[in-house]
Amino acid sequence: MEYYISSDKEKLDVPRIHQEVKSTYWGGYRTPEMTQKTIDACLCFGVYSNEGEQVGFARVLTDKVVFAYLMDVIIFEPHKGKGLGKKLVGAILEHPDIKAVHTVGLKTMDAHGLYEPLGFKKIGDSTMWMAMDNAKYDYE
Predict the structure, then answer these.
(1) Nearest to 93 by CA among 65, 51, 132
(2) How far apart are the first and last CA of the chain?
């Protein structure tokens, strides 16, 4: 099966996204209204089969210059384990609004293995926070 990634919010299957995020350890408290509000406020990405079915989702809150916060990265069953999460995050990092951002941060309890090969590193002694820091600082 072939897949593609789109940042077109019109294509998003919001009820399905809500169902999937609500079933995670991080999104169990969200109402459908909260899910819609998060989508409205962010740059969103869907993963789709060539038949048009949405099979994954992620969103990014960003100022497009200094910081971007990657959230709700999820591949829906039965499409997990096919490398789609890595492709999704890779596509997000290459998006023009994210590519030039100095720091991209995220939180995860269990997906460090997905993010580390893409350049994310743990922050301090946090078990959840990770970041990719491309900022250039002038030190004297």
Answers:
(1) 132
(2) 54
Pairwise CA distance, residues 124 & 10, whole Å: 39
Closest CA to 12 of 38, 61, 45: 45
Q: Which of 12, 35, 11, 10 is nearest to 24 (CA)?
A: 35
Dump pLDDT digits (tens) for 116-135: 999 999 999 999 999 999 87
pLDDT of residue 86: 95
Q: Which residues contact 37 (CB under 8 A, 6 or more apart)?
A: none
Tokens 């869907």 label which residue?
46
Its pTM stands at 0.92
For residue 140, the model assigns a pLDDT of: 57
